[in-house]
Write a structure and sequence with these properties.
This protein is an alpha/beta fold. It has six helices and seven strands; from the N terminus they run ααββαβββαβαβα.
């Protein structure tokens, strides 16, 4: 399985080298690697933020009111024969310097479980990047996947400090500190742009009711 074996190794290497500094970087890298993998296969296409409509996602404010909503997985692999149909949905999570990690994945797990039970997708993956120094990637995967109730949904974890020597780990964290300032500024700018876009969209929609 390319996603579970080869793709995960590529992402780990790029996170170790600090090429990927936030979730959008990771999403772009995954998209690039998957596109390269399916190149030449006219049966498959990729989509980012593909809209899945008319689903009640547990825990959402609309579901609490008995209404249906829509969800957009970070990346979707589509079958193109006839009407495009989602095959694989991928959610991406990145959390550094935290040892309470599995709880962060619950909402995405429940969302993909719902898609699988409704036969909207054939497989769902949560790809989680963490530099947890208490548990290895394999240990976090075991805990997270033991709580999954639906076959075909799986948590994949990559930990950039797994397998590093003490010297390599020290260098990794030194470089991480250097790139975090850059990442913070980039995130701040993105949130400012996103906030303006959301405000403009709300003004266009007009008042609720």
């Amino acid at each position: 399985n390319y996603i579970e074996k080869h793709l995960l190794k590529k992402i780990k290497s790029e996170v170790q080298d600090h090429y990927l500094t936030n979730e959008r970087d990771i999403e772009s890298a995954i998209y690039f690697h998957l596109r390269d993998k399916i190149k030449g296969d006219d049966r498959l296409r990729l989509a980012t933020n593909y809209t899945i409509k008319k689903v009640k996602v547990p825990g959402s404010s609309r579901a609490a009111k008995g209404k249906r909503s829509f969800r957009q997985p970070d990346i979707v692999v589509l079958r193109t024969a006839g009407r495009p149909k989602p095959l694989i949905a991928i959610e991406i999570k990145r959390k550094l310097r935290s040892n309470n990690t599995v709880k962060l994945l619950i909402n995405d797990v429940e969302k993909l479980e719902l898609f699988k039970k409704r036969r909207i997708i054939e497989k769902g993956y949560i790809l989680f990047v963490t530099n947890n120094y208490v548990q290895t990637a394999a240990e976090i995967e075991d805990v997270a996947n033991n709580g999954i109730k639906v076959n075909g949904v799986k948590v994949l974890v990559t930990n950039p400090i797994d397998g590093l020597t003490a010297q390599e780990e020290e260098k990794y964290f030194q470089n991480l500190k250097k790139y975090e300032e850059y990442n913070y500024k980039k995130e701040k700018k993105y949130k400012r742009v996103r906030s303006k876009a959301a405000k403009k969209a709300n003004e266009t929609r007009g008042p609720k009711g």
